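User: Structure please.
Assistant: Input sequence and predicted structure:
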Amino acid sequence: MADQEGSTLFGLCTFAFVPSKDLTDNVIDELSQSIVKYGGQVSARKRDGSLPLATITHIVSNTIEFPQYNASSAMMIPVVKSKWISASLAKGKQAQIRPYTPDPRMIFSDVMLSCADIPERDKEAIVGATMSMGGMYSDHVTKLTTHICALSMDHPKARMTMEKKHKCKIVLPHWFDDCFRLGKRIDEGPYLLPDPEILRVSPGRSIEPQCSPYIDGAISARPDYLQPPESLGRKLNLTVFNDKKIMLSKDLDMRDRLRQIVVDLVTNAGGEMTESAHECDWLVCRYRDTEEYIQASQLGKTVGNMSWLFYLIQHNEWSNPLHRLLHYPEPRNGIPGFQDMRISVSNYGGEARIYLENLIKCAGATFTKTMKADNTHLVTARDNSEKCEAARDWNIHMVNHLWIEESYAKCEMQTLTVAKYTHFPPRTNLGEIIGQTFFDEKRLEAVYFPGGPEKHIVLPARKRKAVDMTDENSAAERPDASAATNRQARKEFNIMRDADGETTEMAEAPTPSERRRAEFATPARGRHVRAGKENETPSTVTSSSRSAKDKALGRLSTLAPDIALYEKEKKRGLKDGHGPWGGKRAADLIEREHLNRRQTSSPMAGEDKESKLEKRPAKKARPTLPEVEIRVILTGFKRWVNDKQKEDADRKKLRDMGIAVVQDGQPCDYLIAPQLVRTVKFLRNLSKGAMVLSSNWVEECLDTKQVLDPEEYILRDKENEKRFGLKLETSIQRARENNGNLLAGIPIYCTAGIKNGTESYHAIAEANGALFMVYGPRSGSTIKPTNPEDDEGGPDPVYLLSTSTPEEKKLWKRFEDMARRGNMEPRVVASDWLLDVVMKQEVSFDKKYLVTNFFT
């Protein structure tokens, strides 16, 4: 850029720097010279190390872990990474603020996205959501591009990236979908093209437990000891306590020797000890109900626990105790509702497991190392393990760590109907994102120290003018003063999936005070919500108008809890056949539970507390179920049609005999069917080589109350074997030899409007290793060209499952042209071809399956 243009680039801007490990003094000196050269000013920190907020317009920091971050947010002073200065210099104008925020909740703040072969509507949704979470988008791939969202490597953008060896990552849209669902950024590894792990590896295969850096030094609220300075391998030169007044609360119950060590460290580092909550800068205490805690919190002091204090000593850098759940004082009696819960943990390892164990105890629940039938919840990083299987058998709630973290952070138990608490990406261990949840400051204040003073900050005119000159510094484009409250900036992407697989956009539940304020708002018009299907490109919903979207979401959030509860109870009523839940049924259940609690918790006259505790486990113990000996999957079973009560009773009888009826997709010993049927369950489990029994086996086991020999009930169905042209015994043997790879490498497309929907065919094809894709007018699908010289036996076939409707006929010519350009043989066939091939477990083709022959 020209010096004349650059000289005013940072005009009217005054910067302050926050040093950190990756923003050293040398880097700060270099950036300061560039700022001054192009018309800006750099303000020195105050004597006590604080920032002069009244005179600065920008804060340069690569972290939000500095004491005045909340105050700067309230004053709308932009906090940017050091990369923002370099980007502004390269562009010749001030860069946008949002993509350079250090706030870890803006999960895509360092993402420069470009999209390849993504359908237009899905592309708009992904781009909009990414930008709302701090990312940027460009139609073109440049050296600054970090991610390309694509369905295959056939698009020119993907090929160019590989040829020029750009460092950007080519990911499936599934990665964005999973990040949006969780509200956290997970590792891209399993989603990377050209060979994404989520498409080639079974979800059930084990994954090494991961551990997040966010729980470093914060795995316990009650550390056992403080490492002596000499054991740290370096000479302590503490500066973190300089000019700070520290108060140690009486409820810490510290030994005299440990207290003296802490006092010496603080005073030798330039700090001062005090006994007054009014005078202190930082209060260290254990519980949230002490007088010191309430006073210090109402006065806006920094409040942490001993674990937080030890962290400051060992790292010699300030950390906000509200950003790590176990760095903040714990509730003395836990969180309401957790006292009667027994929670176990699975698939988390190392420090993550210890962290969850301590967090569960702080919430007031009972942590159990092993899981039994009396457990209420299982917190798991994946939905595959022995404990997960037992949780399904015993109807124990299975959630990820976000549920326990957000319940603790928001000071109240969160409903399990929020989809992100039960979402488990197929090849990700969620231990990698543990510990990223911040406390909700407004909830803490409302529950534990109401009546805190409001802070009114007036901005100097010169600073306000400079801020206005930067187009991205408005409140609508960055986290507001509530950014430290763990209220995620992207509420609209908590996607709930109901029992039928449809996705519904739901906002997070608001606090009671927010709901009261919103009751007087004008009702928002309903938004169209696109139904999601598991074999379509994952999509979300965005709006071209950000302000309109925010208003609509704000109003929708007031209705979210009622909608979720209504849907839950409506489904329960439909399932049990007794109508909606409530009335006498609800009253009777509540009365029974109340009576049980009284009988369990109230000791008899003359009994002491110890005898009460001895009797309680016997009172709560459930009948011991026998080990599961046989797991079965039922399809076409007619005994329970339209009789939910009979089904529940029969399932219980079977379970008491050691027979578990499991869901489709889980390991099973036998597939139960009345005859040969072409249902999804039958074909998927046949593809696994499951032995098929007649449904008479289940009937007679229930009637005789005995486990009969399954070998005597192997399915024999000569009539349908003749009809389908196969022998079931031969098909099972072939399936075991194929090992799920019958259609491996064979591309199978399916028209989006095919009868009965694409989900069923997707599940069947996937169970046999096929490359399944949906084909539509705007699918943008292509076939990677092959070398004709490599086709010794002629070109490989590619199939399109279709019907003969006028809309689908329009696709045939385009599909055939696409296949021939890829040197492949197009075959537009009826869906019966796939069903018959899977039923026989043998790849074959007859021209009778071509749609031009089949439907004539």
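The CA atoms of residues 191 and 199 lie 8 Å apart.
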